[in-house]
């Protein structure tokens, strides 16, 4: 049995942790927030993106035949976790998620068309699954007629600066996958609770679209995305937990560091407990993603619910345990608190995935009966 | 990542499974009615002897102690296979899991010679005498005293929550030998003959109705100095050896405890308050998911440990989350399930065995949250040892025991 990352994935993870710790973190997030506030901000940290691409991170999952490194999903998980931990201001996770869709459903031509650009970092690709007014990733109003797609996707993370969007559109058997070149659609900025990561509205009105995958592909993609997003959420939760534990070791009240009080330390312990429960499911999901296991839906759903549970609890108690200073604009707590909403809104909240998990368990029970 | 056994592990598993299929056949199902104590002891001893003879006792113990000298992975694999049966192995779990490893780590060659083999082969049963009425979470606060008298020690005091004391031949008992030094320093560990004059065992009736534990009273009980484990004053260190084994032993979900599947089955048969089938109600589905995440999450966390062990590495600190998650989840899940069942979940002696199990689980979980480290102590341990937060202030820690408040 081996329930651990490969040496290659660990090495990449270490590299990502090192670079993003230097080039990311709350200070960089604050800089990006300031730029966003002033307007006319860059779409993302272009210098860092060039480095990220130069190190082959966007190429990790791309097959060797298309200029990539042909690595496993373990590498994507490691990268997503590091990006989440350091609030990296680059469209890395979005591109990794879109890459999964092309891997899963892309024809040889589609892969040949898009993968070399993704591998080199020239093409930024983003998933566009959310729609205004619809909470479930399965509820899709965007329509395709005669190869032309119409409707609105929002919020779409990292849309500004992206060339390629993987779009879900309604079909007879449920939402299916389409490729839309962003330059053919209209992009508008949308304001969200996250003041660091930028989101956009993709407005399509008879925009050319190319079929990418079936309804089954769409569902398989959601499961893969849930696993990778779980790692991003765990990274963010861990960063918030670490910051809180360090604060509890130094902040003094009533003549002792607050970390001595059980009212404080037990909340820190609960952060750890929830994080490790999430990690167990995320690792399970990752193993099944690689092995193509039939229980991926179950594992991915559990990973998504458990990681959002850990993240939500952790960011809330991070503000709480910092006390008044944690509620100020100057404190870094807000980045984690707000990012908790970003990652929840990214792909269906806990209720959706809890239902998907129980549905998978029901199907399994029925098959076993 | 790979969920499968290595070739060697698979071979060991197949061998153990084959042996169990042949020798544990009568334990394929639970007994129709619970065994009486005598029969339980007789069966337990026979089962332990059979395991010993087949090489499945003391799997990780050194060969010099009569064990197999194999890795923790082998022990876990055997345990997984044995848990598919209902064989009576509980009677020896504390003695062989905790007491005897303490004996062979700290005992003299004569003591080891006298006791270890007889325990392993299932002839003699052991219990662990640590907790006291005034020393639960604060274990070092024990008051049972041992006073030197010639070559003997004389023991007076009371222990509590001692599993299987009524069935035990021997026990390890931690006593205060010097009340004039700080509490962790004045303790010593002894082997006590549970049949010696002055030892009195009384069953405790728990709030759940059962009697799984005892109080043990010591009145002028004499123990030869040769039966001391470790140096005089080193009892705390010796006890830590024992407790290290306990935390591993009580980590998992009780084997036949209800889980998320119980909740799913129940929710299909009852209606939610708004009249829809409970299984379709969103809050019910969220609770099923939460229960799955806890139950399976702990199983998967234990697989992470296994995976580390199978590669010769130490398991990570994440193993410390198991008991605190399992016990509270059991309580929450049982309460939610009984809620769903409405007043049927309240009436006992009914016809529905699943509801009865849930009622039992609701009562038992209240004890599980306390046994082997309370939720609060376990959170302290995670916060202090894993996250590095400072320890609680302990005003009595450095004061002589008899001078502390």
UniProtKB/TrEMBL annotation, chain A:
Cofactor: FAD
Keyword Cytoplasm: no
GO molecular function, one term: acyl-CoA dehydrogenase activity
Gene3D superfamilies: Acyl-CoA dehydrogenase/oxidase, N-terminal domain, Butyryl-CoA Dehydrogenase, subunit A, domain 3
Residue ranges constituting the Acyl-CoA dehydrogenase/oxidase N-terminal domain according to the UniProt record: 7-122
SUPFAM superfamilies to which the protein is assigned, alphabetical: Acyl-CoA dehydrogenase C-terminal domain-like (SSF47203), Acyl-CoA dehydrogenase NM domain-like (SSF56645)
Top-level taxon of the source organism: Bacteria
Positions of transmembrane segments: none
Domain called Acyl-CoA dehydrogenase/oxidase C-terminal: residue spans: 222-350
Alphabetical keyword list: FAD, Flavoprotein, Oxidoreductase
Keyword Nucleotide-binding belongs to the record: no
InterPro entries, per database record: AcylCo_DH-like_C (IPR036250), AcylCo_DH/oxidase_C (IPR009075), AcylCoA_DH/ox_N (IPR013786), AcylCoA_DH/ox_N_sf (IPR037069), AcylCoA_DH/oxidase_NM_dom_sf (IPR009100)
PANTHER family: ACYL-COA DEHYDROGENASE, ACYL-COA DEHYDROGENASE FADE28
Family under the similarity heading: Belongs to the acyl-CoA dehydrogenase family.
Name of the protein this chain belongs to: Alkylation response protein AidB-like acyl-CoA dehydrogenase
Organism: Polymorphobacter multimanifer
UniProtKB/TrEMBL annotation, chain B:
Record has Flavoprotein as a keyword: yes
Keyword set, alphabetical order: FAD, Flavoprotein, Oxidoreductase
Species, as recorded: Polymorphobacter multimanifer
Membership in a protein family: Belongs to the acyl-CoA dehydrogenase family.
Domain annotation Acyl-CoA oxidase/dehydrogenase middle: ranges: 127-219
GO cellular component, one term: plasma membrane
Family matches, as InterPro entries: Acyl-CoA_Oxase/DH_mid-dom (IPR006091), Acyl-CoA_Oxase/DH_mid-dom_sf (IPR046373), AcylCo_DH-like_C (IPR036250), AcylCo_DH/oxidase_C (IPR009075), AcylCoA_DH/ox_N (IPR013786), AcylCoA_DH/ox_N_sf (IPR037069), AcylCoA_DH/oxidase_NM_dom_sf (IPR009100), Mycobact_Acyl-CoA_DH (IPR052161)
Protein name: Alkylation response protein AidB-like acyl-CoA dehydrogenase
Keyword Nuclease: no
Domain Acyl-CoA dehydrogenase/oxidase C-terminal: 233-387
Cofactor field: FAD
Acyl-CoA dehydrogenase/oxidase N-terminal domain span: 11-123
């Amino acid at each position: 049995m081996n329930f651990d990352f490969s040496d290659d994935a660990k090495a990449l993870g270490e590299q990502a942790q090192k670079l993003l710790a230097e080039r990311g973190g709350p200070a960089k997030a604050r800089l990006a927030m300031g730029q966003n506030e002033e307007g006319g901000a860059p779409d993302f940290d272009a210098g860092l993106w060039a480095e990220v691409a130069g190190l082959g991170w966007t190429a990790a999952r791309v097959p060797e035949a298309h200029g990539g490194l042909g690595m496993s999903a373990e590498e994507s998980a490691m990268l997503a976790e590091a990006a989440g931990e350091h609030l990296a201001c680059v469209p890395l996770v979005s591109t990794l998620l879109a890459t999964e869709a092309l891997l899963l459903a892309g024809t040889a031509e589609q892969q040949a068309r898009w993968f070399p650009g993704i591998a080199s970092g020239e093409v930024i690709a983003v998933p566009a699954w959310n729609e205004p007014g619809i909470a479930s990733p399965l509820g899709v109003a965007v329509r395709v007629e005669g190869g032309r797609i119409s409707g609105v996707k929002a919020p779409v993370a990292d849309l500004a600066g992206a060339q390629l969007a993987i779009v879900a559109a309604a079909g007879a058997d449920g939402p299916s996958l389409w490729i839309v070149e962003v330059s053919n659609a209209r992009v508008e900025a949308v304001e969200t609770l996250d003041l660091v990561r930028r989101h956009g509205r993709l407005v399509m009105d008879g925009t050319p679209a190319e079929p990418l995958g079936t309804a089954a592909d769409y569902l398989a993609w959601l499961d893969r995305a849930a696993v990778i997003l779980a790692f991003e959420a765990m990274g963010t939760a861990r960063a918030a937990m670490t910051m809180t534990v360090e604060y509890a070791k130094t902040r003094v009240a009533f003549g002792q560091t607050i970390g001595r009080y059980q009212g404080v330390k037990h909340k820190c312990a609960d952060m750890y407990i929830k994080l490790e429960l999430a990690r167990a499911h995320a690792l399970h999901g990752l193993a099944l993603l690689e092995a193509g296991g039939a229980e991926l839906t179950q594992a991915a759903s559990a990973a998504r619910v458990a990681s959002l549970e850990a993240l939500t609890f952790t960011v809330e108690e991070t503000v709480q345990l910092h006390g008044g200073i944690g509620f100020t604009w100057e404190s870094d707590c807000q980045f984690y608190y707000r990012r908790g909403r970003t990652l929840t809104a990214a792909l269906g909240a806990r209720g959706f995935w809890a239902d998907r998990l129980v549905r998978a368990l029901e199907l399994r029970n029925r098959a076993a009966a | 990542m790979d969920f499968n056994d290595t070739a060697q592990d698979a071979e060991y598993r197949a061998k153990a499974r084959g042996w169990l299929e042949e020798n544990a056949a009568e334990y394929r199902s639970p007994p129709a009615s619970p065994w009486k104590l005598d029969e339980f002891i007789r069966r337990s001893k026979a089962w332990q002897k059979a395991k010993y003879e087949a090489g499945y006792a003391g799997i990780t113990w050194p060969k010099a102690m009569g064990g197999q000298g194999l890795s923790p992975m082998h022990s876990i694999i055997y345990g997984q296979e044995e848990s598919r049966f209902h064989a009576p192995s509980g009677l020896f779990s504390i003695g062989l899991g905790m007491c005897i490893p303490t004996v062979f780590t700290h005992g003299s060659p004569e003591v080891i010679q006298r006791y270890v083999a007889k325990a392993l082969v299932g002839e003699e049963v052991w219990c662990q005498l640590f907790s006291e009425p005034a020393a639960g979470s604060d274990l070092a606060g024990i008051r049972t005293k041992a006073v030197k008298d010639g070559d003997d020690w004389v023991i007076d005091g009371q222990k509590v929550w001692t599993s299987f004391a009524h069935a035990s031949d021997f026990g390890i008992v931690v006593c205060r030998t010097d009340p004039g030094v700080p509490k962790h320093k004045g303790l010593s560990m002894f082997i006590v003959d549970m049949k010696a004059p002055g030892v009195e065992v009384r069953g405790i009736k728990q709030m759940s109705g059962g009697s799984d534990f005892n109080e043990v009273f010591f009145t002028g009980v004499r123990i030869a100095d040769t039966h001391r484990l470790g140096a005089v004053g080193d009892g705390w260190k010796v006890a830590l050896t024992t407790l290290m084994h306990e935390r591993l032993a009580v980590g998992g979900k009780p084997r036949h405890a209800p889980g998320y599947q119980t909740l799913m089955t129940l929710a299909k048969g009852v209606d939610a308050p708004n009249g829809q089938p409970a299984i379709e109600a969103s809050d019910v589905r969220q609770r099923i998911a939460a229960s799955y995440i806890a139950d399976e999450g702990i199983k998967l966390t234990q697989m992470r440990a296994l995976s580390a062990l199978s590669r010769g590495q130490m398991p990570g600190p994440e193993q410390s989350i198991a008991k605190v998650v399992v016990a509270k989840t059991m309580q929450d899940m049982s309460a939610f399930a009984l809620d769903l069942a409405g007043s049927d979940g309240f009436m006992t002696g009914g016809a529905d065995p699943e509801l009865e199990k849930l009622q039992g689980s609701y009562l038992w979980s209240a004890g599980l949250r306390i046994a082997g480290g309370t939720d609060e102590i376990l959170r302290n341990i995670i916060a202090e040892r894993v996250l590095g937060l400072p320890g609680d202030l302990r005003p009595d820690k450095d004061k002589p025991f008899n001078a502390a408040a």
